[in-house]
Each structure stands twice: as structure tokens, then as C-alpha cells.
Amino acid sequence: MTTTARDLGQRFHAALVTGDWVTIRSMLHDDATWTLPGDNTVSGVVVGADAMVERAQKVASYGLSFKLLNVLVSRENMALSQHNTAQRPDAVLDEYVSTVCRLRDGKIAHIESYLSDVPGMNTFFV
After folding, report:
1. Do 66 and 82 touch, CB atoms closer than 8 A?
2. Is the pLDDT of residue 1 over 70?
3. Number of domains making up the chain
4. Per the CB 3.0–4.6 Å rule, which of 46, 87, 96, 125 could disulfide with 116?
5. Does 48 score more than 80 pLDDT?
6. Is the pLDDT of residue 2 over 80?
7. 44-47 and 107-115 as β-strands: parallel, antiparallel, unpaired?
8. What CATH number does residue 10 fall under?
9. Helix (H) or strand (E) run with residue 111 in it
10. Cα angle, residue 12 at apex, residues 89 and 83 outer, rounded to 5°
11. In what order do the strands lie in the sheet with 65-73?
């Protein structure tokens, strides 16, 4: 499972960076969920693969740079360690993110994102 989980994490990140939403959708279970902390336009829980792709598209639309630091694996799951940055005239985003993915049958069943700067995220995603 470790090799599969690592490969899935690397492919997921590559698809995120290139905006390959079809590939991301193919990596998700139809009933998958994604939880993001904060109180802003992208925070909360979304349910369903299509809703997760819509959220990823919205996050990316803010011009983020998603730098992959590492793909971490457990016995059955994986996590992406990232440094996400973006800048607008009125706000800067500079945060470290752990995107923890619970896998089921080789696909992502749940994502929970952990952020280093939730107040900064709330300011940026308005």
C-alpha cells in the first residue's frame, strides 16, 4: 500500500498544480469529503467528489503556488506536506499545509487539511 499511497499523493499534487481537474476527480470516491478549517469562502466541509473538485478549483483561482515538500505515508493513508503562497495587492498568503488523505480501495475517501495560519487564510480567502 505504501508505494500506491505515495504515487497517489504525487499524482494528486501534480494534478492540482496543473489544474487537471479530471484526474483529481478520478482519484476521489463519489462520496468523498474534504474538511478545511477557518471561516472564509473555502472553509468548512464539502461532500462529494464533484464538490471537492469545485473547491480545489476555487482555491486555485486565487493564484496559489502549491509547493510540495513531502508525501508522507502511513500503513493505509497518505498526507501531503505543502508550502502554499499567494499574493494580492491587499493580502498575502504564506502557510504550511498538511493535507491528510484517508484512502479506500486506492482512492481518496476523505481529506482533512491542517494549516499553520488559519487567520491568514481567513484574510486571504474573502
Report:
1. yes
2. no
3. 1
4. 96
5. yes
6. no
7. unpaired
8. 3.10.450.50
9. strand 107-115
10. 40
11. 44-47, 28-36, 107-115, 91-104, 78-88, 65-73
